[in-house]
Amino acid sequence: MLNLRELRVSERLNYSGSFLIMRDAAQRKIQDLLEQKKSLTFDLSGQIVFYAGPTKPLNDKVGIGPTTSERMDRYLRMLFELGVAATVGKGKRSELARNLCQFYKRVYFVAPSGAAAALSEHVKKIELIAFEDLGPEAVYRIDVVDFPLIVAIDSEGNDLFSLKSFSI
Amino acid sequence: MRILVVDCKKIKEKLVEKLLRANISVDDFVKKQIEEYTGPFSDVLKRNLIVAQQTGLPLCQDTGMVEFFVFVGYNVVFTQPLEDILNEAVRQVYMRNPFRYSVVKDPIFERKNTFDNTPAVVHTFITDRENVQIRFLVKGGGSENLTRLFMLNPSVRTDEILDVIVGHIKEHGAKGCPPLNVGIGIGGSSDKALVLSKLALTRQRNEENSDPRYAELEKVIVERLNELKIGFQGLFSSITAYAVHIEHAPTHIANLPVAISVDCYLCRKGVVDVEPERIESL
């Protein structure tokens, strides 16, 4: 397991483990359920949430890649309150997201965008977890091996996209 | 009067091939750019081209909503309703390949997936050509979210127009998977400017505006954008844009609409020309 607090902004790593995949529609649904005081059928505690929507499978392989994280900033506090350990997506996030990462000591990674075929080689298993009716926007768990990531916001709130210069 | 009959089966056949190709391969220019890129995740982007070609998995999981721009001769008739054929082509490609269904039927309430990636967006233009040309964009949601319309003061200086365009890309360009192909529509009405900006995206990369003043603007904008060095993956290590194209049109004395559309680094698009099957006289 990753020691998230030791990771520093702009660090590149290859992650092996699992991601919980969800994006706009699933997070809105989670928020609705929580507002209605209903319980979730799955546990987000300790999970790394990957903002993505997979392709249909080809021989058990799925194409996958990050979507724009900034759209998910409105749900980030909710995810951290549910125990989510880190998030993965693409692009710069809002100041709110940066502050939340710092406050909750959580990490935001960027993954390569527009590289679904290459990333399919790192996906070992995909499993539907919830909200099947949402199709590609449902919640899935994927097991990955050596999945390429870069630390974009570290647990101290340092933001890759605000650095004047850096090298990866 | 001569009536040109265009066979819709032929349209579908050609589109199916090109839509598939647009999702799994890039043109030579883009390929060279990716091969020469050495910054963050360059290993993954290079590998992506190979795996997509070998497996048929798409280059990007966002296989987009398809937009068609159809240029039809005024005396052309189709053997079937045109939109039906375009949607049939999309349905076939997206249902038979390991792509993603990225279209929802109702935009606000159910947002229920249509599970065949239709409907496509279709714009038709009646022209004096003697055939049919269909241009298409495979438009990902991330780059589409960067579309903007600015209704500028008609008396602004050219510099101010450039500042608006460059300012928008500076603020948001990193979210559209750069280097970008940038399309700009200037003039017309608000809606016309937006369509023009999309048409600008369908132009060939080296096809500059036929008016040398606009061609110069295209050049200046691409230079200014590339000074921003937004780079592949938005990680500041290379150029911001491959190309900028402008389409312009007459406008109202009180208006100066400026619309910006962008395409991601994969530039997934295509052109299909279909000649008439037979000519009949009326």
Question: Care to describe what's here?
Answer:
The complex is a heterodimer of chains A (168) and B (282). The model of chain A has no long low-confidence stretch (mean pLDDT 95). Chain A has 168 residues and is α/β, with parallel strands linked by helices. Chain A has helices spanning 24-35, 76-81, 95-104, 116-120; strands at 12-22, 48-51, 86-89, 107-110, 123-130, 139-153. Chain A has one domain: Fe-S hydro-lyase, tartrate dehydratase beta-type, catalytic domain (fumarase, Alpha-Beta Barrel). Chain B is an alpha/beta fold and 282 residues long. Helix content of chain B is 36%, strand content 27%. Chain B is built from eight helices and eleven strands. Chain B has a four-stranded mixed sheet, sandwiched between helices. In chain B, strands 6-9-7-8 form a four-stranded mixed sheet. In chain B, strands 3-1-11 form a three-stranded mixed sheet. The chains are: A alpha/beta (168), B alpha/beta (282).
- How many helical stretches of chain B? 8
- Assess the beta-strand content of chain B as a share of residues: 25-35%
Any idea what the shape of chain A is?
A: globular
Biggest sheet features of chain B: 4 strands, mixed
The radius of gyration over CA of chain B amounts to 20 Å
Secondary structure layout:
The complex is a heterodimer of chains A (168) and B (282).
Chain A: E1 12-22, H1 24-35, E2 48-51, H2 76-81, E3 86-89, H3 95-104, E4 107-110, H4 116-120, E5 123-130, E6 139-153
Parallel strand pairs in A: 1-2, 2-3, 3-4
Antiparallel strand pairs in A: 1-6, 4-6, 5-6
Chain B: E1 2-6, H1 8-24, H2 28-36, H3 42-55, E2 65-73, E3 76-78, H4 82-96, E4 121-127, E5 132-139, H5 141-144, E6 148-152, H6 158-172, E7 180-188, H7 190-201, H8 212-227, E8 241-251, E9 256-263, E10 269-274, E11 278-281
